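This section describes the prediction task in plain terms. A model, or a person checking by hand, is given the sequence of a single protein chain and must write out its three-dimensional structure as a string of tokens. No templates, partner chains or ligands are provided. The sample shown here is typical of the held-out split.
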Amino acid sequence: LQFLYFIDYFPDSMALKRSAPVLVTAPLQIMKGMRVVELANVLAGPSAGQYFGELGAEVIKIESTMGGDVTRTWKLPSEDPSSSVSAYYTSVNMGKKCISINAKHEKGRNIINQLVDKADVVITSYKPGDAKKLKMDYESLKKVNPKVIYASITGYGDDTFRAGYDAVVQAESGFQYLNGYPDSQPTKIPVALMDVLSSHQLKQAILLALWNRDRTGSGSQVSVSLIESAVSALTNQAASYLHCGVEPKRIGSDHPSICPYGTVFDTKTGSQLVLAVGSNKQYSELCRILNVPVLDEHLTNPLRVRNRESCKKHLAPAIKSFERSDLLSKLQEAAVPAGAINKISEVFTTVPEVSDLVVRSPEGQFLGLRQSAASFSDAKPAPVPNAAPTYSRDTREVLSNLLGFGDREINNFISDKVVAA
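The expected answer:
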């Protein structure tokens, strides 16, 4: 399978170079031989592309000649302003080849069509109407490759000409309203979760479409919207309204129907932990470890939910008398669900289970964070992926090695502003 990505990047003056491969534990290379062409940018589409790349697919990211994926410029104040690779960009673009093509130029579209002809999957995230204008829509590309899987991400569906933005969809889907404390303003989740959810939906849809193609021999179009992906993930909060007619409210870190679940407590040195007590037995064990009685008003979960504030006040002083590590150890031994509140730096230094997700070069340079978090029983060590590509890094290689263009033709494409290299 092959995927192509069309993204706008900014000129590069940075020297992120391909690292020599090293063997590491990695996901099963089940998609080896697959080619993906991505006409997508920012997060949702590129995340899906990187996922298939990690599973062995060749992923070709197509960027415009006008600069590139906007996330190349989304930088922290401490980042190098001259680099075409930002920290944000590295999060979903590891392991890809990057080619810059002017899709508004007829010769550029012809090159893209040749890539699509050799692809298994095309991933897009065009603004409404743009794909059709550029003849990069499914109806146009299936004439080039009838077996292609055309996977698109939109904000609000194929029939709504409105662009989707994570922050806006967080607000419109109810997530932002629910996030925060009762006396606080609705708060945006600090990860582009709507994009992440949409990417997961798109991965699933692509896999189903590939499976269906194996059975029928035909390609197809699959489409995922940010708003539908978000609302489908409201789960119990949506059911509270749809099944019970109850309007969910902001309640901070607490759970609306379990207590104490998600609740944050301070420990002796000021460090914090969270409890996720979901049964009466777990609550009884918690109280035993804390050396406090199980009060009648907290005997069952419905009673604890009804008397939430008194339950928290009953537990808080006892929890604060413990060192966090000591208490967490005792709770783990007793199978009472609890965990430390970690800063991001602590996640990568104190949680050993996530170490395989971080990909580094042999020299220790950070290359990316894996999008595939699954383990396979028959997985074998695989080469470390290349770093997220600098702007137009692979234009010449792809045009020459994959499409068979000679140096003179490629130089003419560059001078005619058909491609950038």
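For orientation: The longest helix spans residues 193-216.
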